[in-house]
Specification:
304 residues, alpha/beta, seven-stranded mixed β-sheet, six-stranded mixed β-sheet, 37% helix
């Protein structure tokens, strides 16, 4: 209902209303303090580091760091002050903003970050002209560098028409993908601007083809509710049950549930499993695209 209402308003009005909604939601959850839903956590690999930064009521921002050059990029910096503080703490040179999609809780901090960050001019990447402060409009297959790290842009339209996932690899073979609101731990984004066929292509024909060891950093802390839905779809899936127990444990200590991995998502995520016989039987669908549409419609009204 809210999304249909916002689509008929001018963009500036929409942005202001959306910002107010997300800020109010965070305030209702945490009050006026700087408390956050998760602790900030750094995932260190030998040549690819990721600092997980929590924002709003359940968003994640990610500071991607090349430890050899200290060059860094930030994914979806909706809280610019927290990003700048993390850049100073880590002692890195921020050069790029990687925006997954235009929604305010992901792109709403771009302009402020660019104006506040005075160390150097930031490049802002994204696949949608609706993204604030955009300097580099990317498309599927485009590449860029963060120091010695390689980044490939994967166009995954459906949640929004211009959604981009960023696949990052190091010279020593470490891999991570930043999936915004396309792929979540145990779930996927709503089909706001796309179709089941597009989400099938994004998840099954693009993301699932990445190496299984690829770490998945998604845009929100939705793990528990996604896994509860997964158990409804596949009550006998031991992998989902075990992952849910782990998530409940770490979330009890405000530890992020991210990252998962592509290989793990193939075991626990019903939207990555639409070609499995169990999903076909549950959805009474003859193909994966139809199954994708059925479970997304069911998930839209699911209450954990």
């Amino acid at each position: 209902m809210l999304s249909r209402f916002l689509r008929v308003l001018p963009q500036t009005v929409t942005d202001n209303l959306t910002a107010a909604y997300f800020k109010t939601s965070a305030w209702a959850k945490f009050g006026s303090s700087r408390q956050s839903h998760s602790i900030n956590l750094r995932i260190d690999m030998s040549c690819l580091n990721v600092k997980i930064l929590s924002a709003l009521s359940d968003n994640y921002m990610y500071l991607i760091i090349d430890p050899s050059t200290k060059e860094a990029a930030i994914v979806d910096p909706v809280d610019p002050e927290s990003v700048i503080a993390a850049v100073k703490t880590e002692g890195v040179k921020l050069s790029k903003v990687l925006t997954t999609h235009h929604h305010w809780d992901h792109a709403g901090g771009n302009e402020k970050l660019v104006s506040l960050f005075t160390e150097n001019k930031l490049e802002v990447f994204g696949g949608d002209e609706r993204i604030g402060a955009l300097t580099n409009h990317v498309k599927h297959g485009d590449t860029l560098k963060i120091g010695n790290l390689d980044v490939e842009c994967l166009h995954t339209p459906c949640h929004t028409s211009g959604h981009i996932c960023y696949y990052v690899s190091s010279p020593f073979g470490e891999k991570a993908v930043f999936t915004g609101d396309t792929l979540f731990l145990g779930g996927c984004g709503r089909f706001f601007e796309g179709t089941a066929e597009q989400m099938y292509e994004a998840l099954i024909e693009k993301l699932s083809k990445l190496p299984d060891e690829t770490k998945v950093f998604c845009g929100h802390e939705y793990a528990k509710q996604n896994l509860l839905f997964g158990l409804k779809v596949e009550p006998e899936n031991v992998d989902i049950r075990n992952k849910l127990a782990w998530v409940e444990e770490v979330r009890g200590e405000n530890i992020p549930s991210v990252p998962s991995s592509i290989g793990e998502e193939k075991k626990i995520n019903p939207f990555m499993r639409v070609n499995e016989q169990s999903l076909r039987e549950y959805t009474k669908s003859g193909d994966g695209i139809s199954a994708m549409g059925v479970i997304r419609k069911e998930k839209d009204s699911f209450k954990a």
